[in-house]
Amino acid sequence: MNDINDMNNINDNTNFDDIEELDSTWIQDFDNLDKEYKNYYTEDISFLRIHSIYINKENDIEKVREEKVFLKEPGILQKEELLGIIKHNSFSNGIKYNLLSILKFNINIEPEFLKNFLKSKDKNIGSSFLQSVKNIDTIRFEKTITLFHDINDLIIIYHQRINKQNSYLKNYTKKIVINSNTKKNKTKRI
């Protein structure tokens, strides 16, 4: 019971001006330090750079177009968005291009492995970041260190459409019709 009375006396005698004088600089120091490391935290990607590469009939790179696309859902490029991008970029300078390949570049390294990654002498250390997209479908990007958000990329490669009338790559398809000459016996039941 004495402890409760002592607590009441402390609360009654406490001057709130003394609380304001408490050293709170450690909070400010922590916030400042945290701001310095904010670029090294992993976060969902909110935008994506898309590079469209156009290859002409002679297999030379004709043009490279870059655009920045903001994702409707963080870290996810929906199938409909991808189809729209492909369709929108399939023409360049009045020339029709066909989709050849889609590549996804996503740096998904964890912050604790960053130092080893940067110091590594292995030439293939970053090869796992580049992946071929096999199907036109929703593409998911993993969380990335904030500092690397600008580097994540979708590369779409187009090849100039070859005019079939002048092409040596004509596709000839022979129509095959299969007829059955066997007669079927019909039996009538009475």
Describe the protein.
Helix content is 24%, strand content 27%. The radius of gyration is 32 Å and the shape is elongated. The protein has a domain at 50-160. The protein is built from 5 helices and 10 strands. By secondary structure, it is of the alpha+beta class. The model has no long low-confidence stretch (mean pLDDT 78). The strands form 3 sheets. Strands 2, 3, 5, 6, 7 and 10 form a 6-stranded mixed beta sheet that branches. It has a two-stranded antiparallel sheet with strand order 1-9. It has a two-stranded antiparallel sheet with strand order 4-8.
- Low-pLDDT stretches are none
Order of helices and strands: HHHEEEEHEEHEEEE
Largest sheet: 6 strands, mixed
Q: Specify the number of helices.
A: 5
What is the radius of gyration?
32 Å
**Could you state the oligomeric state of the chains shown?**
single chain
In what range is the share of β-strand residues?
Answer: 25-35%
Structural class comes to alpha+beta
Helical content band: 10-25%
Principal-axes geometry comes out as elongated
User: What's the end-to-end separation, in Å?
Assistant: 110 Å
Mean pLDDT: 78
Count of individual beta strands:
10
